[in-house]
Amino acid sequence: MAIKDRWQNYKNSAEKAQSEGKYEYAENLWYAALEESKEFGPTDRRRALSLERLCECLWFQEKFKDAEPMAQELVVIYTKVFGQEHVDVAGMQANLGLLYVVMQKEELAEPILLKALDIKKRILGLAHPDVQKLQATYDDVLLKLRNKGSAPAVVNARQWSKTGRFEAMKPPAAAPAPRKVLTSDEAMALWEPLYRDGCEALAVGDWARAEERLAKALEIAQSFGETDHRLCLTLEALAKALGSQDRNQQAAPLLEQVHKAKVRVFGPNHTVVAESADSLARCYYYCGNYGAAEKSALESCKIYEKMYGPEHLTVATCLGNIAMLYFVHKKMLEAENAYKRCLAIRTKVQGAGHADTVKVLQNYANLLRQTHREDEAKHLQACATGFVTGSWKVIEVAPEDSLRRTTDDCAVCGTPLEGYYKCSKCGADVLAKGKKVNDR
Fold this sequence. Notes:
Layout (H helix, E strand, L loop, with lengths): L2 H17 L3 H15 L7 H16 L3 H19 L4 H16 L3 H19 L4 H19 L7 E2 L27 H20 L3 H15 L7 H16 L3 H19 L4 H17 L2 H19 L4 H16 L3 H18 L5 H16 L3 H6 L7 E2 L52
Parallel strand pairs: 1-2
Helix pairs in contact: 1-2, 1-3, 2-3, 3-4, 4-5, 5-6, 6-7, 8-9, 8-10, 9-10, 10-11, 11-12, 12-13, 13-14, 14-15, 15-16
């Protein structure tokens, strides 16, 4: 097998593992890809991408010391390729600066973060979310340096930048040509293979192909109607492809459209709507739009609490996400209240020694240290480092906890509807059978 093929195989497997949060497994694969990339040259895009994704894996595992030399090499590579004033160079500089922050090397972090901030301000503007997040971290570093060793700066894991490209920014797309009006059968015949191919590409971590196929599928799916399940499926899949590439600002409007459709079909109090709100909150969070993320996360939590009760583990997961949102947005009182509720549920249901409970304890203790309450933090016996894990906890509902009823299986062929009201296999319409959506 050729070197480029081996590298591509390692890359595809690593990106799939990484998208699923299997960082340790992905780390091993990226190390293998990095070894293969030695044959491509010191500034080859494949070597840069391998370094970049490996750094990200190490970052999320808090292996900061291991990531440091790789982050340094990335700054050198990007500077050689793009020059000193490119926004992607600033992204790599910011990553290196963030590593120094969480390693409590503020003296090294400050000039690097300042350089990255200056570039991003000039190119992106003061109102851009990336600029605002980086400015907040830089301000915290300055405060820490002035106070000489007080509470560590707050760093959000999703401030880690990745580009994965060596190419100029694309020019604005030309106005699309008028679409041919398709019959329902014609649209279905065109949409189905594109959607299927896009999902298959998603499954193997081929994000570029997934995006290309699903974008074409979306053009066709628009003809099905705003609340059609095929349009929603396509929007969700394309949003996943974009999110996997850290292009969450492009994914957000797609998920907004999905959420509006599901509210219209299922009403405001349904598990499908709660799941949709949580996905939207997660996307907003990764965009740095904490206000919108907070609103959607609270909506999701309210629905789950109404359906499952206030002491269900799903509610605890929601509260943990909400607490993290409050924390990175520096709403410390609100974050503390959410952590307390989350901790009470997890301790009661899972026990004090469970890994999920311990993680909440650690994050809660870190909040207490941020508010200068060291004695209370020590009482929790947590080992907070100043690093806040920024992974959004996925809402997982056990089958026995599901609130869905008989209409969640197609009455014609028995295929699970997966939250939609039309069967993807035989096309049977649940609404046409006289069953109200709100009766679900």
